[in-house]
Amino acid sequence: MRTSKVCLSFILIAGLFAGCGSKEKAPSESSAPNPPAQEAAAQTTKDPGVVTGARETILDMYRAASTGNQETFLKIAEGYANSTAESPSETMGNLAELFEMKGGAEGITLEEATKEQLAPFYLARIEEQFGPYGEKAVVVIEWSLSHDTEPMAWIVERRDQENRVIRRDLDLEEGSKFTFFERKETGQTAQQPGKSANSGGGQDQVSLTDIMRGSPYNTIVALYEAALNGDKDVFENITQFSTEKIHSSWMAERVMKAGSTGGLRIEEIDKAWIKADLRDKMAKEYGEDFALMVEWEKDDYAQLFILKKVNGAYYVMWHEDENKDGFLDYYVNEKYEYDMSIFDEENVDYE
């Protein structure tokens, strides 16, 4: 539209100058601007009335975050960045981490939702804000790491002939339900065709076991996701060898306060940082492939997990909460570098 306005302004100005030379003459039909040409120019800049390319917009946002291109990122996703409690650089960092964890664009599984897929209460909220679904805004489904829990919903809006990512919805409450999408049967989480935690791991399938084989970090992320989405089967699968009962309620609260699993401060403690006697004890009990994971709840409190490889996949064997001083004194040696920058004042306080 901007181009057509400039052209029209130029035509009007030209007409004014022409009028100054011969005020007494009325413009003839032959000297008037050509309406068909103007109409054709307007049609070339007019929005088609439907959002297209929404999936690619989400991928472009991820790519910009992954490459640290803040200018492009904010052009695409300024609305989303402004909707979070984080700084733009932190938001980009979280998306870049998720992008890398999923193996790049090929691992980001997106699906543009149809009107029929959306739960009625969620569709009503979308249309109340943006108007008829698909004309100015659409929902893009991003499936979770294990592909069997409730997916995220990206809102893509058409503005000035370009797509903009407005926000990311993790859950909306309708009574006791947390869901965006219709479920085939009561109590079943919407699933992407061909992708299930119990699937056989074929070429087009990503099973929970495949995720857990990837890294201990992936296992912890999948555990928090399962807690958030109330996926009892996945949660119990990951913790089936734990020596103590791990409750999912506090983990779900942690993710909701962090905004997403990408907002959690999770790190794997290098074995060279673990105190020698403790490292030997862990290796003897859990095997040389054990992993010590920390999820920092705040600057002086942490959740600790020990994971062990069973048939090639990482499972949670033990969990404990600990304050910072206890962690530094008992678990790690002087080689461990405690990164205070992850608790800057502008970061979300997860208490």
From TrEMBL:
Domain of life: Bacteria
Ranges for region Disordered: 24-49, 182-207
UniProt feature, compositional bias: Low complexity: 28-43
Signal peptide: 1-18
Polar residues composition bias: residue spans: 187-207
Keywords tagged on the record: Signal
Designated name of the protein: DUF4767 domain-containing protein
Naturally occurring in which organism (per UniProt): Paenibacillus faecis
